[in-house]
Design a protein that fits this description.
InterPro entries: Prot-tyrosine_phosphatase-like, PTP, PTP-SAK, Tyr_Pase_dom. It holds the Pfam family PTP-SAK. Keywords: Hydrolase. It comes from Dactylosporangium darangshiense. It contains 4 helices and 5 strands, in the order E-E-E-E-H-E-H-H-H. It is an alpha/beta fold. The protein has a single domain, classed as Protein tyrosine phosphatase superfamily (Protein-Tyrosine Phosphatase, Chain A), CATH 3.90.190.10. The protein has a 5-stranded mixed β-sheet, covered by helices on one side. A hairpin with a 5-residue loop joins strand 1 and strand 2. The longest helix has 14 residues. The chain is globular, with a radius of gyration of 13 Å.
């Protein structure tokens, strides 16, 4: 499990911990056991199980159904694994994903952006369409 005070670690309402980070930043010393990578092109092989979601910077994911499945897998794995969610800078796409994962964990969709900004990063979820994506996320199958 992650240490609650470790940089970028978000505590979800269930108590599960998920680390968000920007891949352009220096890699933390503690390695994840699973990674969810939100990038416009495939990430390198990090050496641990991972899922790549095609998601261009400042936009929305290319395949919303697959993205929702990836969020659900990240939440399931966070029960007993160190899960990392990351994009280039660690704010927009990562914040949007963390907000959607928080919705899956019980945070109302209308409050999820504020929750992630309060507990992860004050500038998480950068664009109006990312905010809308989170607000409508709970209504997706």
């Amino acid at each position: 499990m992650w240490e609650p005070g470790e940089g970028g670690v978000l505590r979800l309402p269930s108590g599960r911990l998920v680390r968000g980070r920007g891949l352009r930043n220096p890699a933390p010393t503690t390695r994840p056991e699973f990674g969810l990578y939100l990038l416009g092109k495939p990430p390198p092989d990090f050496g641990w199980p991972a899922v790549w979601v095609r998601w261009p910077d400042f936009w929305l994911p290319a395949d919303r159904a697959a993205t929702a499945e990836a969020f659900a897998e990240a939440l399931r794995r966070a029960e007993d694994e160190r899960v990392e969610v990351a994009c280039g800078g660690g704010r927009g796409r990562t914040g949007t994903a963390l907000a959607c994962i928080a919705v899956l964990d019980g945070v109302p969709a209308g409050e999820a952006v504020a929750y992630v900004r309060r507990h992860y990063h004050p500038h998480a979820v950068e664009t109006p369409w990312q905010k809308r994506y989170v607000a409508k996320f709970s209504s997706r199958p």
